[in-house]
Write the structure tokens for this entry.
Amino acid sequence: MIGEKEYAALVKQASPKTNEAKTLFAAFCVGGVICMIGQAFSDVYAEFVPLDEKSISALVGMTMIFLGALLTGLGVYDKIGYYAGAGSIVPITGFANSIVSPAMEFHSEGIIFGMMARMFGVAGPIIVSGVCSSVAVGVIYYIAGAVA
């Protein structure tokens, strides 16, 4: 049996060497570019689409999710993620990637037990947490409004 120090030394030896400064810079830049693209869509929609601010925000979200899913389907998003790391995961496009990637990976297992069952494996807990917390906040808001 090997001790903790020996195990830590083996892990350090087997782990790939990374340049944290370079990785951090790439994540910051790519995440920023993704956000700039979203802002550009917002500006274009505000100029040319006769919608209110909330509707434009929803349209930008839908556009970015579509682009993230499309780029994942084309195999481009994986290359962006390899280069940028967390910089590609944090924006809304990372959410689309986390849904589409498992669907593509398990497509061979069939539509129901492959794509549909595995599709929300990564994003499912996040969606459930968001729905449950929004219901809880809604109930608190409703009760607070009824009391006031």
